[in-house]
Write a structure and sequence with these properties.
Elements lengths: L11 E3 L2 E3 L3 E3 L14 H12 L4 E8 L17 H15 L4 E7 L23 E3 L2 E2 L6 H20 L5 E7 L2 H6 L14 H4 L1 H13 L6 E9 L11 H14 L3 E5 L15 H9 L3 E4 L23 H8 L5 E4 L1 H5 L3 H6 L19
Parallel strand pairs: 3-4, 3-12, 4-5, 5-8, 8-9, 9-10, 10-11, 11-12
Antiparallel strand pairs: 1-2, 6-7
Helix pairs in contact: 1-2, 3-6, 7-8
C-alpha cells in the first residue's frame, strides 16, 4: 500500500463546512438505539472514530418524524426529546475531540416490513406502493402524506442545526423512499410526482428546498444517491452522462452543496469512454464537491457483511491518485472504519501493517 497519502490529509472547506482531512465515515446502520434513542454507547462509538483521525462523520441513518419512516425499534430516530438529547450528546462527544459530524436523515419507504417495525398496523409508504417493479405492498402515497414527509425532513434538519450538527445528509440512495421516487421501476405515478425524470426528482427537490428554508444559506446539505438499488444491483437512474446531468441539475439547483455518490466499488468507472467513477462524473456535471464511496480499503463489497463475511484489506494507491487528480473531493470509508476506529490515523502514520481485515463479527457490537 502506498505511503503517499498527503492528499487524504489536506483540509477541505466548502461554504459552511470545514474539516481537517478528506476522510469521511460512511453511514452504516447499527441498530444499537433501543426504541430509537441513541445511547452513550452510540456517542462513544462516533467519538472514537473522530479521535482516530476521521475528519467528518456521517451517522447511521436516523429517521424523520413519520410513523412509517423506520424499519426497526433499534434504529435511531431524529425526533422527540429523548432521541434529540441522545444526538446532542453525540455531537458534543465528537466536537470535544475536534471532529465534525452530520446526521443522515432517512425514510425507509417500502423497504419497511410492517410487522417488524414500529406501528405495525400501518402500511408502509412509497410513491406507488411498490417495493420493486411488480411487487405491490401498499397504496400510493397521498399528496398529504408526501407534503408531511417533506416537512418532517425540514424539521429534522432544523433540529440538527439547533443541537449543533455541522450539516445534514439526505439519504436518497439504495432503494429507500427518496430513491423510490427517483427510480421509474418503483415510481409509476402519473401526477406531478412521477413520469418524467424531472417529476420523479421533484420529491427530493422539495425536500432540499424545505431544508434550506428551515436552516440557513450556509448550512451544509449533502445528498447521497446511487444508481444501484437493494432491490436490483444492476438498476440505473441514468444510462448516459446526458441523462445523469438531467437528473442531477435540479437537485444541484435546489441547494445540494455536496453529492455523496454511492457505488459498490469506487474503482469502477461509471460510463464507457472516460475513466471517471460516479463521484467523478457528478463533479464534472454539477461543479459541486463530491464524496466517493464503495469498498475503500477492502477487496469485497459490503453485502457479504450481512451474512458475516469478512474482507481482506486492499491497497488505496488508485484512490489517492484519483483524489490527487481532483476526480472527487472526499472519501467515505465504511467497514474499514467500523472494524477499526483508528483507520485514518494508521493510514496517516504509515502504520499499514497494522490495518485490520474486516470481520463480520464487527457488526455485533459498537467497538
Amino acid at each position: 500500500m502506498t505511503t503517499k497519502t498527503q492528499a487524504l490529509f489536506t483540509p477541505f472547506k466548502h461554504k459552511g463546512l470545514s474539516v481537517d482531512n478528506r476522510i469521511v465515515m460512511a453511514p452504516m446502520t447499527r441498530e444499537f438505539s433501543p426504541e430509537g434513542v441513541p445511547t452513550s454507547d452510540v456517542a462513544d462509538y462516533y467519538r472514537r472514530r473522530a479521535e482516530g483521525g476521521t475528519g467528518l462523520i456521517i451517522t447511521e441513518g436516523t429517521t424523520v418524524n413519520d410513523p412509517v419512516a423506520n424499519m426497526s425499534h433499534r434504529i435511531p430516530v431524529f425526533h422527540g426529546d429523548k432521541a434529540l438529547a441522545g444526538w446532542e450528546e453525540t455531537v458534543n462527544a465528537v466536537h470535544n475531540v475536534g471532529g465534525k459530524i452530520m446526521p443522515q436523515l432517512w425514510h425507509v419507504g417500502m423497504a419497511r416490513v410492517a410487522e417488524k417495525a414500529p406501528f405495525p398496523e400501518l402500511p408502509s409508504a412509497g410513491p406507488s406502493g411498490l417495493f420493486k417493479p411488480g411487487k405491490q405492498g401498499a397504496e400510493p402515497m397521498t399528496q398529504q402524506h408526501i407534503e408531511s414527509v417533506i416537512n418532517a425532513f425540514a424539521t429534522a434538519a432544523a433540529d440538527a442545526k439547533r443541537i449543533g450538527f455541522d450539516g445534514i445528509e439526505i439519504h436518497g440512495a439504495h432503494g429507500y423512499l427518496i430513491d423510490q421516487f427517483f427510480w421509474s421501476g418503483t415510481n409509476q405515478r402519473t401526477d406531478e410526482w412521477g413520469g418524467s425524470m424531472a417529476n420523479r426528482g421533484r420529491f427530493a427537490v422539495e425536500i432540499i428546498k424545505a431544508i434550506r428554508a428551515a436552516t440557513s444559506p450556509d448550512f451544509p446539505i449533502v445528498l447521497r444517491y446511487s444508481q444501484w438499488k437493494q432491490q436490483d444491483y444492476t438498476a440505473r437512474l441514468a444510462e448516459t452522462p446526458q441523462l445523469l446531468e438531467e437528473f442531477l441539475a435540479p437537485l444541484s439547483d435546489a441547494g445540494v452543496d455536496i453529492f455523496h455518490c454511492s457505488q459498490r466499488r469506487y474503482w469502477e468507472n461509471e460510463f464507457e469512454g472516460e475513466d471517471l467513477n460516479l463521484a467523478g462524473w457528478t463533479k464534472k456535471l454539477t461543479g459541486k464537491p463530491t464524496i466517493t464511496v464503495g469498498s475503500v480499503g477492502l477487496n469485497d463489497d459490503f453485502f457479504g457483511a450481512f451474512t458475516g463475511k469478512g474482507s481482506n484489506t486492499r491497497a488505496i494507491d488508485d484512490l489517492i491518485e484519483r483524489l490527487e487528480k481532483g476526480e472527487f473531493d472526499l472519501v467515505a470509508v465504511g467497514r474499514a472504519l467500523l472494524q477499526d476506529s483508528n483507520w485514518a490515523n494508521k493510514i496517516k502514520n504509515n502504520q499499514l501493517d497494522e490495518l485490520e481485515e474486516f470481520s463480520g463479527k464487527a457488526l455485533a457490537s459498537l467497538i
